[in-house]
Amino acid sequence: MARAMLKTMQFRSIFICAAGLLLITSAKQDSIRRLDGSRISKAEAAGFARTTLEQAHVTGVEIAVLNDGHLVWSDAFGLRRRDPDLPMRPDTNTWAASITKGVFATYVMQLVEKGEFSLDTPVAQQLAEPLDHYDAYRETAAELVHDPAWLTVTPRMLLAHTSGLLNFSTIEPDKKMRLHFKPGTQFWYSGEGIKLVQFVIEQQKKRPLNELMQDAIFGPLGMKQSGMIYRAEFAENVADRFNADGSFHSQTKRGPVNAAGSLATSAEDLAKFAEALLGGRILKPQTRQEMLTPFIEIRTLHQIPQKLNEPESEEAQKVGLAYGVGWGLLTKTQYGPAFFKEGHGDGAQNYMICFEKKKTCMIILTNSENGENAFKALLEKILGDTVTPWEWEGYRH
């Protein structure tokens, strides 16, 4: 009798332990781990996102979260189109705007890893002719190529936004490219510089960038909703873009290819990209580390300052704000180093951040001019991200 009772007690103990483990496993599967180790249920995350986005009047949103380098939650809210209303989905093709720059930089590093491209050989030495001899730059680069400092500008400087070029030559009074400071010494965000790296690569490869990146990244990773230019297969699940008042802005049919901002993708596709990047499947770890090593420390109040000598920011210093090859960096946070990229475009506001040690990421894509109004609340509540430099990004709402 005693033996039978003992066996029954042992069985009950094993059963209770197994049930407990199942409950713990189920809780983890139904929740997201924040950066501080606490958890938020997926249901609570979805409810908070829905309320926050409605209050911010954001037309449509896709969100994806990675824990330990793997997608643990993706969801979508609002509409991808109106009249008739069609719901946004986590795999809806949406304009990523300047997140393009980070994905493009990763492709550049693939070339570097294979010995097919140099980050530190000046651009002038990597072209067969002077820049202003090419049709694409004949009207804009004549003054630039006669500046002695132009001969020192490298792809690494261009990808780290330290070349001295403004964001685009179209904002120069005469629409001409020129250097505003000694290359490599200051941070000044420049889409023009990213496009210049694209031009050099296309000259060397004799192929358009959309084909090159399709073969190198989107195809191998199964990113079927991603492309550097619009493709007909996106038509059934593509997000239109909307103004702040909710009115229609434009369709998302990006082209021509532009390394500074033509990528259209989905949150789930960018999650595949992040998984591969953190998992060492598209770059070797040492190559990724080179990409994410600070090239320039940033102390400005804002990402795109109104003047060259803007006052320094305590916020930037606190988190160790810097720039590497194509990605913004946070080098001094309590959660370890992070890399990020935002995307600002008419009717498309986006953000992506990954914390390397925890392999935790959050991706937000919106098709609304109001998208950024919700970023701070979403990142803090769902990811526990209290370190993104909100003022520098312009996300203080």
Structure description:
The chain is α+β, with helices and mostly antiparallel strands. It has a single domain, classed as DD-peptidase/beta-lactamase superfamily (Beta-lactamase), CATH 3.40.710. It has twelve helices and 15 strands. The protein has a nine-stranded antiparallel β-sheet, with helices on both faces.
Question: Which features does this protein show?
Answer:
15 strands; alpha+beta; 397 residues; two-stranded antiparallel sheet; 32% helix
Assign the CATH superfamily: DD-peptidase/beta-lactamase superfamily
Strands of the largest sheet, in order across it?
5-4-3-15-14-13-12-11-10
Strand tally: 15
Assigned CATH architecture: 3-Layer(aba) Sandwich
Mean pLDDT: 93
Coarse morphology: globular
Instruction: Determine the CATH topology.
Output: Beta-lactamase
Query: What is the name of the CATH class?
Result: Alpha Beta
Q: Tell me the series of helices and strands, N- to C-terminal.
A: HEEHEEEEHHHHHEEEHHEHEEEEEHH
Structural class: alpha+beta
- Biggest beta sheet summary: 9 strands, antiparallel
What portion of residues belong to β-strands?
15-25%
Helix % is 25-40%
User: What does the radius of gyration come to?
Assistant: 23 Å
Low-confidence stretches: 21-26
What's the number of helices? 12
| CA distance, first residue to last residue | 70 Å
